[in-house]
Amino acid sequence: MKKLLLVLLLIGPSVFSQQNLQDRTFFSEALFNHLSDYNKKADLAYRFNQYDIAKELFEDFTNNHLEGSYMDNFKFHNLKKKEVQLYDYSKPVFLITYASWCVPSKGEVPALNELASQFKEKIDFVILFWDKREKAKELAEQFSSDISIVYVDETENNGAYVVRQLKHSLGLPTCFLLSDDKKIMEIRRSVFPYLNTEAETAYRENYIALETSISKNLINQYEEVYAENISLE
């Protein structure tokens, strides 16, 4: 009996971890199962300029079918041309996608910079550009050094899978809030204040919306895991 218990203690963690991985539903799988139906309904709504319905469809799709799945270990490149994997980031991840032809909303950049400075010890902030390295490097200058800038250059024809999954499926800009084990806690669109909104007001609108999502979905989760690790030591 003692020998059996010893064997279970030795092999148990690896077996259970493999089972946990097998039980996970990944983002790519959830997309495969539900994206087609969402696209049909959303395309119809946009065709008739039913933007409120299109927004509801997006929220229903992400809330009920994508959130709770686990983000795949996608690969990008940093500005030094080094390949970076999503799972290289060990903390919870705030991931947002941009491109040179799809600029951040008014007030969004200063809000992101402030949040990255505030939460950098607990969260990895990552901005993914769908652009060539030169353009991504140019665009990166407006962001804080606390934010990790990565890019996928479609012209190189070596990122088709990540482009199809993260860009063409949900469009951009899209924000993903991921726990430390890369579970999708929330998917959200950027805040777009009215064009005539004053800069300070636009900044506050973005900051409040993003800080609320971060505190609700990432900070509490991080602090719970940190507390558990401390209690085990």
UniProtKB/TrEMBL annotation:
tRNA-binding in keyword set: no
Keyword Signal: yes
Source organism of this protein record: Christiangramia crocea
UniProt GO MF annotations: antioxidant activity; oxidoreductase activity
Taxonomic lineage from the root: Bacteria, Pseudomonadati, Bacteroidota, Flavobacteriia, Flavobacteriales
Every Thioredoxin domain range: 65-213
Name of protein: Redoxin domain-containing protein
InterPro entries per record: AhpC/TSA, Thioredoxin-like_sf, Thioredoxin_domain
Keywords: Signal
One Pfam entry name: AhpC-TSA
